[in-house]
Amino acid sequence: NAGVTQTPKFRVLKTGQSMTLLCAQDMNHEYMYWYRQDPGMGLRLIHYSVGEGTTAKGEVPDGYNVSRLKKQNFLLGLESAAPSQTSVYFCASSRTSGRHEQYFGPGTRLTVT
Amino acid sequence: SQQGEEDPQALSIQEGENATMNCSYKTSINNLQWYRQNSGRGLVHLILIRSNEREKHSGRLRVTLDTSKKSSSLLITASRAADTASYFCATDETSGSRLTFGEGTQLTVNP
């Protein structure tokens, strides 16, 4: 079991460029989440999904889009990157909602210059 | 705004000592969870305590929950240098469908 994997691990973008972060889980979990973590802060939820084909906005969704075409994958897109999106991005999954623990990926460190 | 607030923000102790971290929250919850994050890594789930439980143990970890005061504490006994990490509480609010994380306590255990 690989658990939750994220690609890429690191990325540097110029302002205005676009990119997609990929998250994959092999635990057959229904729920998947994208968070961002900024220095000295906790996790802030960007978007989440309660099942294949569904997405929902979290606390800080602006500037991001997501898709969950397959149950095991959750993609996070940045259409036009801004320096304020410099952060570490974590994907997580859980069997169901907050009733169960979340399993996290190793993170993607994104720098936007 | 964050649901959970950890206290203290940073804690430095010697190996062998106990470490206590506190979490306060604002709304009714179904459960409260504690996670650990080593530097540069993803979060790892430590323990989950339900709203009808008052205390839970897992190895050297002891978690308490006081729903009347809307607070929880995480005690790590006989700390080790390997316990150095950030610790986050996360609440599963009765009104929501996802966890809300606090800002974390940075624990440093000196050998």
Topology:
The complex is a heterodimer of chains A (113) and B (111).
Chain A: E1 4-7, E2 10-13, E3 19-25, E4 31-37, E5 43-49, E6 56-57, E7 64-67, E8 73-78, E9 87-94, E10 103-104, E11 108-112
Chain B: E1 5-7, E2 10-14, E3 19-24, E4 29-37, E5 43-50, E6 55-58, E7 61-66, E8 71-76, E9 85-93, E10 99-101, E11 105-110
Parallel strand pairs in B: 2-11
Antiparallel strand pairs in B: 1-3, 3-8, 4-5, 4-9, 6-7, 7-8, 9-10, 9-11
Could you characterize the architecture of this molecule?
The complex is a heterodimer of chains A (113) and B (111). By secondary structure, chain A is mainly β. Chain A has no helices and 11 strands. Chain A has strands at residues 4-7, 10-13, 19-25, 31-37, 43-49, 56-57, 64-67, 73-78, 87-94, 103-104, 108-112. In chain A, strands 2, 4, 5, 6, 9, 10 and 11 form a 7-stranded mixed beta sheet that branches. In chain A, a hairpin with a 6-residue loop joins β5 (43-49) and β6 (56-57). The termini of chain A are far apart. The relative contact order of chain A is 0.33. The model of chain A has no long low-confidence stretch (mean pLDDT 94). Chain B is mainly β and 111 residues long. Helix content of chain B is 0%, strand content 59%. Chain B is built from no helices and 11 strands. Chain B has strands at 5-7, 10-14, 19-24, 29-37, 43-50, 55-58, 61-66, 71-76, 85-93, 99-101, 105-110. In chain B, the strands form 2 sheets. In chain B, strands 2, 4, 5, 9, 10 and 11 form a 6-stranded mixed beta sheet that branches. Chain B has a 5-stranded antiparallel beta sheet with strand order 1-3-8-7-6, with no helix packed on it. In chain B, a hairpin with a 2-residue loop joins β6 (55-58) and β7. Chain B is globular, with a radius of gyration of 13 Å. The model of chain B has no long low-confidence stretch (mean pLDDT 93). The interface between A and B is medium-sized, with 25 and 26 residues.
